[in-house]
Design a protein that fits this description.
By secondary structure, the protein is of the alpha/beta class. Helices cover 38% and strands 14% of the residues. The structure holds pyridoxal-5'-phosphate. The site of pyridoxal-5'-phosphate has 14 residues, from helix 3.
Length: 403
């Protein structure tokens, strides 16, 4: 039985519920304060003030200067702006070589591959160990005289592995002092300490909807003095770095979301890690053939990637959905259909033979939910490995709306 018949949402790495405080902060900019921040009159100035205020607050969260932050439409655009912007600005002068890791999100990997396909970049993809860890030494060894950018994510969205970004940045720069270092920190905000200066990176991407903010809003941190070419031309907003009328409500919401999640991180991260550990212990004890991906690595506190041999990710995720437990297979394209996971391949698993069930916790996750979810996972794994075609019986569920 699930708790009160409510569905259990354990897919916070995909997106998070928007916090009440965030909705409250956003609403005025969808109602009375609907001005264009570029307008010179009072209504415009109110909108501009909201953006300035949000930028200051996000800069305080990240320990950087407000002028180092550019608002974007999300993590994907921030990653694209970092890679394309650096290549376009520096490619001809410094070289077109780019180094990325094999476990990057598609927003980095596909962008780098597209730049290479159009002849704008030459790409080196550095592999990882069986837990998804990229060796900073290997990364630095790939840096050449013509390397313009190194991109290494802070935490992986499929298996949660945390990378040694600070060490990698230092070593990459030792190999070539001109190299710029980017980190996709989309999964890290509110879950790990996140100060670009401490990481020693020049560029860093973040996204609001992964930390209880709205979708379609993110930012790119660019260390002051880091030049990159704008990818959207137009009205010259965001100091010319990203044209387009700003999404004022979402930006105001992002700042509140980031403050809240950073404020609670000290107690939420260990609390969620404890819940994750109890879920993993219950699943491993109850289901045969389940392994925990990256178990020996530093991981995101809220994420568990369960590897099930001889099962299908889609069948398991669909089966759990029918049981009222919402998790994911870790990798999905925008149509919702599953793709082969490049991360599973990178860690040496065969995605055709091994299912990945990603369970990701959030601030609304409770011990009772986790216990229920573990029992459901044990039952779904038993069914999927015994009789792959059978699906658990569906029961009507209310939607769980906890934050
Ligand atoms: N980078 C990582 C690591 C992610 O997990 C995601 C989203 O899943 C993105 C980038 C893309 O962010 P957005 O959904 O804001 O475009």
């Amino acid at each position: 039985m699930l708790i009160g018949g409510e569905r259990i949402y354990l897919d916070h790495a995909a997106t998070t519920p928007v916090a009440d405080e965030v909705v409250t902060a956003m609403l005025p900019f969808l109602s009375e304060h609907w001005g264009n921040p570029s307008s010179p009159h009072g209504r415009g100035r109110a909108a501009r003030q909201a953006i300035d205020d949000a930028r200051d607050r996000l800069a305080a969260v990240l320990g950087c200067a407000a002028r180092e932050l550019t608002f974007t439409s999300g993590g994907t655009e921030a990653d694209n702006l970092a890679l394309r912007g650096v290549l376009q600005r520096w490619g001809a002068e410094r070289g077109r070589h780019v180094v990325v890791s094999s476990v990057e999100h598609e927003a980095v990997l596909a962008t780098a591959a597209a730049l290479q396909a159009y002849g704008d970049a030459e790409l080196t993809v550095v592999g990882c160990d069986g837990s998804g860890r990229v060796d900073p030494e290997r990364l630095a060894a790939a840096v050449r005289r013509d390397t313009v950018l190194v991109s290494l994510m802070l935490a992986n969205n499929e298996i949660g592995t945390v990378q040694q970004v600070a060490t990698a940045a230092r070593m990459a720069r030792a190999a070539n002092p001109q190299v710029l270092v980017h980190s996709d920190a989309v999964q890290a905000l509110g879950r790990l300490p996140l100060r670009p200066a401490d990481l020693g990176v020049d560029l860093l991407s973040a996204s609001a909807h992964k930390c209880y903010g709205p979708k379609g809003c993110g930012l790119l941190y660019a260390r002051w003095g880091t030049h990159l070419t704008a990818q959207l031309e137009g009205g010259g907003q965001e100091r010319g770095r990203r044209s387009g009328t700003e999404n004022v409500a979402a930006i105001a919401g992002f700042a509140v979301a980031a403050e809240l999640v950073e404020h609670e991180r000290e107690h939420e991260a260990p609390r969620q890690a404890g819940l994750r550990d109890s879920l993993e212990a219950a699943v491993v004890a109850g289901a045969r053939g389940v392994r925990i991906a990256a178990a020996d690595a530093e991981r995101l506190p809220n994420l568990s990637a369960l590897l099930v041999s001889g099962a299908s990710s889609e069948a398991l995720v669909a089966g759990l959905d029918l049981l009222g437990v919402e998790v994911s297979s870790g990798s999905a394209c925008s149509s919702g259909a599953a793709q082969r996971s490049h991360v599973l391949e990178a860690v040496g698993e065969d995605p055709a033979d091994t299912a990945l069930v990603r369970v990701s916790l959030g601030r609304g996750s409770t011990p009772a939910q986790v216990a229920e979810a573990a029992a459901a996972i044990v039952s779904a794994v038993a069914r999927s490995t015994a009789e792959p075609a059978a699906a658990p019986t569906a029961r009507p569920r209310k939607v769980h709306s906890g934050r």
